[in-house]
Structures are given as C-alpha cells and as structure tokens.
Amino acid sequence: MKDRGMMKWLPYKSLVEQAEINRAMNERLEREEKPLISKEKAEEINEYLLQYSGQISKITYFRLDHRRTLVGHIEKISPEEGLLVAEGIRIPFPNLLDIEDA
Fold it and tell me: pTM of this prediction?
C-alpha cells in the first residue's frame, strides 16, 4: 500500500471555515499564562537596573501571551512611568521576567 503523505490531509484544509477554526485553536494552544516571579528575582532585576551602565543586556519579558527575549542596550529606565525601553521596545516593569548581561 502506498502512503499518500500530506496529500491525504489537503481536503481538510480546503474549507475556509475549518481553516479559521484550526488557526484559532492553534493560537489558543500556543498561549501561555504570565509566570509569577519571586520576590528575590524582582529584587535581582531592580538591583540590575540600578547598577546598569550601558552594557548589552539579555531581557526576558512577557508580552501578548508569550515569553520573549531581547538582547541589546537599554535606552531608558523610567521608574516614574514604570517602564524600560530597550531597542525601541517599551516593556512595563511588571512584565519583566529576567534581566542579565548578554
């Protein structure tokens, strides 16, 4: 018996409505909840930001249901606004998960 490979699945993607439902389901499955950080980790992040002196940093943050990592220079640290700007991306302090030298 000859296997048809991906050909056998093509008819299931032919319905527009079904493709939209499949896309939405995959999107829901890929979401993750925002992880909580410990008090110690929050203090570590705060200490790093207080001592920051222009070095390249590896920043892990949470945005739009996903954990993301950014490597680059921090352009602005604004305690008044509660955010950090790095490589043109604005990251609110509560979304920071980790930060370290790259």
Answer: 0.71
